[in-house]
Amino acid sequence: MKTFRYVGLLMIISGAALWGVSGPMIQWLFQNSSLTSSKFLIVRLLLAGIITLTLLYLTKKNIFGVWKHPRHWIQLIIFGILGMLGAQYAFIETIHVSTAVTAVLFQFLGPVLITIYVAIQTKKLPTAMQLLAVVSALMGTFFLITNGSVENIILSKEAITLGLLTTLGFTFYTLHPTSLIKEWGTVVIIGWGMLIGGVALFIYNQDFSVVHLAHSLTFSTLSILLLVIISGTLSFILYIGSLKYLNATETSLLSSIEPLVAAIVSMIWLNESFGIYQLLGGLLITTAVVFLSMPIERSKKKLKVE
C-alpha cells in the first residue's frame, strides 16, 4: 500500500508539472500565431485521442468494451463533452484573454469545491491537515499571482467568467470518471474522452480547415503545438490515473504545484517578472504538499504501535 501511494504521488506531481508547463506554451502559441482556442483544441483533442486509442488497440487493450454498456458509454460521452472538452476549452480561453498563470489559478480553485463535495458525500469534515493545506495553497496562489496586492489583479468580466468555468470543469473531470476508470482503466477513458471532445468541437466548428491551419503554422509554432499535445495528454493520464492510489482531495491538492511551475516557466521563457511575495507563494504551495502527505503516514505509525 505504501508503494502504491508513492506511485500515486509521483503520477500527480509529474502530471501537474507537465500541465503547468503546457500553460505558458499555449500562451506563447497564441502570441506567435493566428490560432484560435477552438482550432487549437480540435487539433489537440483529436490527435491526442486518436494516438492514445491506436496505441491501446495495437497493444491488444479492450478499447471498445465500454460501448457495450449503455450506462457506461453515456457517462463517457458526458465526461468527454462536459469534462474533457468543457474544462479544456474554458482553460484555453482563459489563457487567451489573460495569462497562463491566471488560468492555472482558477483551475486550482477546484480543490476547494472538491474538498467540500467529498466532505458532504462522506458526511465527514476535512481533517485539520487538509484544511491547513487548502489555506496554505490558496495563500500561496494568491501571493504568486498578485505579489501581495489585490490591486495587481486586473481581469475582465470575460476572464473571470471563463476562469470560474475552468474551476467547475476541473472539479467535474476530477470526480465524474472515477467509476469508469476503475472499470475500464485510465488511458482508455482519457483516450475516448479526448476523441469525443474533439469530435464534438469539430462538428460545432464547421469552418475548421486542416489546409488553412497548416498554412498558418511555422516550424516553431508547429513544434510547440506538438509538445503541448504530448505534455497535455500525459498530464491528463497521470492526473486521472493517480486517483487509483490517492483520493480526490489529495490528488487535487497535490496539483498545487501547477501555478508554481507555470510561474517559473513564464518567468524564464516569457520574460514575466515575479516579486518577493510571489516567491513566498511558491514556498507556501510547496508547504501545502508537505502538509498533505503527513496525515496518512502518521496514522500508519499509530497503527503499528497499537
TrEMBL record:
Keywords: Cell membrane, Membrane, Transmembrane, Transmembrane helix. It is found in: Cell membrane. It is a multi-pass membrane protein. InterPro entries: AA-Vitamin_Transporters, EamA_dom, EmrE-like. Residues 8-145, 159-293 form the EamA domain. Its main location: membrane. One of its GO terms (cellular component) is plasma membrane. Pfam families: EamA (PF00892). The chain crosses the membrane at residues 7-29, 41-60, 72-91, 97-120, 127-147, 159-175, 187-205, 217-240, 252-270, 276-294. Belongs to the EamA transporter family. This is DMT family transporter. It comes from Priestia flexa.
